[in-house]
Each structure stands twice: as C-alpha cells, then as structure tokens.
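Most newcomers find our protein records easier to grasp once they have seen one. A learned vocabulary of local backbone shapes supplies the integers on the structure line. Here is such a record, shown just as it appears in the course material:
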Amino acid sequence: SKNLANLIVTRKVATDVEMYYNNHFLMQHDLLRELANHQSNQEPIEHRKRLAIDLTQNGKNCPNWLVEQNQPGIFSRMLSFLSVRGTQQQQKQEQVTARIMFVSTDETFTPDWYNMNPDETEVLILNIHSNKYTFPDFIQKMRKLKVLIVTNQGFHPCELNNFEVLGSLPCLKRISLEKVSVPSLCKLRKLRNLSLYMCTTKQAFGSSDIKISDALPNLVELNIDYCMDMVELPSDFCNIMTMKKLSITNCHKLSKLPPEIVMLKNLEVLRLSSCSDLKEMPESVGRLQQIWCLDISECISLTQLPADIGELHGLQKLYMWGCSGLNELPHSVTSFENLKHVIHVICD
C-alpha cells in the first residue's frame, strides 16, 4: 500500500506450472503514473529512453512537439511565424531516440496526419481502443524494432490493417497481440515468438495467401490463449522445425491436433491446458523425444493418452489435474521407472 501499487492474482494454480504465463495484474495508482510521466517529461525529447504518446480524444492529448512537427500547409507556416525565436531550429534537432515507445489511441485516431523518425526504438507498445486500426507507415522506419505489443481495450476484436509493413523490419523477434482479428500473415523471417490472446485467428490461419511455415520460418515459441475460434491447429505449423514451445490454452473449441506434429523434432514444451473439447492426442506425440514438459490439465474431454507416451524419455513434468475423463494410463508409462531422472506428475 505504501508503494501505491496492488498485485491482483487471478490464477493461483498457474504459479505451479513452469514457463507459464500467469494472469497476474499490477494495479497502479494514478498518482504513481503521473509521477512517472512527470519525471520523463523533464528530459528533452531527444534524450528520453522511454516515450509515452497519448493520441486519444481526436488528438487533444497529443504533445505539442508532435503537433508542431506535422502541421500541414499554410497553417504550418503561420505557426512557425508566430513561434518564439529558436523554436524552428529546435524542432529540426528533435529526433525520437527512445528505446521504448508507448502510443495510446482511440477510435478518433487517423495515422496519416503525423510522421516520426523513431530510428532507435526497440520496443513499441500500441494501446488501442477501436474496431479498426491501421499501422502507421512510420513503423517501417523502425529498423531496430525487436518487440511489438498491440493491446486492444475495446469490447470486440480489432481489425488490423497495413500489417504487411511489419515484413520490412529486419530485427523484429517478438509479437504479442491481444483482442485483435489477426490479419493474413506476411513474411516475418526473424520472428521467434508469437503470442495471441483473445484473438480471432480464422483469417491468418485459414485463408492466408502465404504458407504459415514460409511466413514464420524461424518461430521458436507460439502461445495461443483464449482464442475462441481456434478449432484445430493448422498442420503447416508442423513444418516449422525451429519450434521449441507450443502452448494452446483456454481454447475451448480446439478438438484435435494434427498428426504431423511428430515433425516438430525440437519441441520441448507442449501445453494444452483447459482445452475442454480436446478429445484425443495424436499417437505421434509419443515420438517427440525432446519434450520435457507436457501439460494437459483441465482437458476434461480427453479420454486417453497416446499409447507410446512412455517413450518420452526426456519428460520431466506431466501436468494432468482436472482430467476427469482420463481413467487410466497406457502401459508404456512403466518404462519411466528405468529413467535416470525423476518425473514429476501433478494430478488430482
């Protein structure tokens, strides 16, 4: 309470699962946020390592330096004429060099009226509140961008446009999307981590013009959580040989996995927690020798495990609480007793 922040824990059980995203939230007091913004604003634009830009309410909250840089036509010349001496020279020197940039927009936002040169930005966080959002063209200037986080605060998934602009970014390694309609994929050759939370995936996974394995050839980690239109994992994901972690959780319509999953020879973590319609796992899962963590907790429709699951000689963690339809284990699990390491089975 003295730190003006409260930790809100929404899922206690997740703390027992390794490498799992916990639904914990930090509620921050407005006073603390204002203090942080005040401290940041004491530095000139060109010296800030973290930059927050509020473009809500039809640009009324937009910072003056950004408005002045992007005034069009006659009005721009009038503004320059009326400005104090030296301001014009100062504007030319102001460059956005922040490593972390946070941009907040609402339904009044139009990306065509301003432009920036964020050459040094490595992390871009977009906090949007609208049914449609178009990625601004200045993103393609972010040649050092490594992380993109898009969070939609609206009630319905947001339609993303100009998504292909991300394909020109040479360093982009991580994308996290929350409550958006994922558009058709473009080639993201450097991308290693893709996280989708409360998204619709039909357009990206079902009707994309490009093969998933061609768009994401170096993907290492895929996290899909609360994506309610997720019925099955496209088999082309199994052609991404670099995949080490596959996590599909709380996708209640997911009914099956492709048998081609055996092609993911480097897969280490397979998490299928709380996929209530999942009735079976492919027998080929038993041949994924690199898996050390298998999580099928709360898969209430799952009635049996692959017969060869005992062949997972690298398995260290097996989470299977809440599997009310699973009455027995395959006989092959007896081979686990011959392993040199301990297997932790977490169940009811």
Observations:
- The two ends are 36 Å apart (CA to CA).
- The CA atoms of residues 240 and 279 lie 25 Å apart.
- The longest strand covers residues 123-128.
- Residues 45-86+93-219 form a domain with the Leucine-rich repeat, LRR (right-handed beta-alpha superhelix) fold (CATH 3.80.10).
